[in-house]
Amino acid sequence: MSDTEVSFDRRMLDALICPRTQTTLRYDAEKQELVSKAANLAFPIRNGIPVMLISEARELE
Is the pLDDT of residue 3 over 70? Predict the structure, then answer.
């Protein structure tokens, strides 16, 4: 992570759920994503802020 990137606050995981399935999320620090296994989606984290829009999520392989 560069000095200009903002890190994700893991405490946010307690409050965030998948917008499609309302299930918990897993933080993937390497890819900077929040992963919903139930929905088979990964939501990006940009500048330390999770983007919880289904249209912005990528499908897991």
Answer: no
Supply φ then ψ for residue 14, to 5 degrees.
-65, -25
Asked if 1 contacts 13 with a C-beta cutoff of 8 angstroms, the reply is: no
4 pLDDT band, cuts 50/70/90, is very low
**Prediction pTM value:** 0.85
Residue 30 CB: number of other CB atoms within 10 A? 6
Question: What's the fold here for domain 10-51?
Answer: N-terminal domain of TfIIb (2.20.25)
Residue 13 class from Cβ within 10 Å (0-12 exposed, 13-18 middle, 19+ buried)?
Answer: middle
